[in-house]
Design a protein that fits this description.
single chain, alpha+beta, HIT family, subunit A, 5 strands
């Protein structure tokens, strides 16, 4: 049996409170929620990073998240907004090495948010943006 907690949940070995299941993905309650109703959309296939996941499954996860977002807004949660968060890699905050998409119900004043670097408001030069765009575009051509 895999040591991956999400693989164990999917296999029925570890407990979870499921909201959605199909042959490609499932969604269950996060046990360390930011707010009540915080869900995780998880592919059934083990993939450590988003780049390791087949594109059709990534698209499907987003479609599942969209349905969950609609449900959150009409359920008794009555959330005022929703954040989708996918942390890809340790530097991005990924804690479980299995791709997962957080669907987080939000409320004004709930205390959750993103912290920006001190120089966030400084606008980069267009030439720098163009160089980065070129480098990323060329890397896409190689993949």
């Amino acid at each position: 049996m895999s040591e991956c907690i999400f693989c164990q949940i999917i296999a029925g070995v570890a407990p979870a409170s499921f909201v959605y299941e199909d042959n490609l993905a499932c969604a269950f309650m996060d046990t360390q929620p930011v707010n009540p109703g915080h869900l995780l959309v998880v592919p059934r296939v083990h993939a450590r990073a988003m780049g390791d996941l087949p594109a059709e499954i990534a698209r499907h996860m987003m479609a599942v998240a969209q349905r969950l977002m609609k449900a959150m807004r009409s359920a008794p949660l009555c959330c005022e907004g929703v954040n989708l968060l996918l942390a890809d890699g340790e530097a991005a905050g990924q804690e479980v090495d299995h791709v997962h998409l957080h669907v987080i119900p939000r409320y004004k004043g709930d205390g959750f948010g993103f912290r920006f670097a001190p120089d966030y408001g400084a606008l980069p030069q267009r030439g720098h943006l163009d160089k980065l765009a070129t480098a990323i575009r060329e890397a896409m051509d190689e993949t």
